[in-house]
Amino acid sequence: TDIVVEYGNGTNTRKSTNFYFPRENSAADAHISAFYFPVVSFPSNAIIISSARIQFTSNANSGTTPSPSPSPSSYRSLRLNIRAQASTAPSELTLASYSISSRTLAQASVGWDVGVTWGNGGTIQQQTTNEMTTDITPIVQELVGQRGWVSGLSFVIFVRDAGGGELGGWRSAMGVSNTSVS
Description:
This protein is mostly beta strands. 7% of the residues lie in helices and 37% in strands.
């Protein structure tokens, strides 16, 4: 999985091991995290998808100022939004200015309320249901139902701030460790 973060000023950074969503330091630096999945094995027009999720590996959980071991009292809940690119053959992620936010979004959208339990109270390298997205089946269903979809194509998932969570909260992940579809 390739990961690129686009900041509000349009600059992009490739992340391989440590990234934050939906911001790194303050509410002012909210950004979009884009995840490029190069080979997705779903049959075209797959109708019976009962569950689809992305598993992250935690690195940290905190409020407004990232630190390796934040205190539980500084944890904040987050409300994130997950969408996909509306394409059966999205291009790979690049570092060109605004190359993430300029992509056409699919219609399906899923909210992800990330509680304060991310990383089990500051523990790094956690891979539990606390670090797993909510069910993104509507997003995957829309993608595989597109005209031209065949198994083995790629797709791009976006995670961004949806508002409504506590101001300044963030989560740090070490990467995408698994995707689960059934």
